[in-house]
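Reviewer 2 asked us to include a model.

Predict the structure of this chain.
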Amino acid sequence: MYKLIVIFLASLFCMGCASIIVLPPIIEGVSWIKLGVDVVSYVETDKTTTDHALTYITGKDCNTLNVLSGKSLCVPSQAIK
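Predicted model (structure tokens):
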């Protein structure tokens, strides 16, 4: 019986209806937490957590707000002021 329940739950997570049942409250909570962390990060470093992750992964200076002003998302690190 346990295996049947696990298979049923696993299939729900693979279907779109799983997000209706389980994910929205979790996603909403994580979203609010990330927003708070992003605000603190932006005030302290002028970058969001996403910017820091992109900078770490690419090795370039990345800023997602650059896109709004028509600039490149990431610039070479030596171009940092």
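Helices lie at 2-14, 17-21, 23-45, 49-58. The first helix runs from residue 2 to 14. We have added this to the supplementary material.
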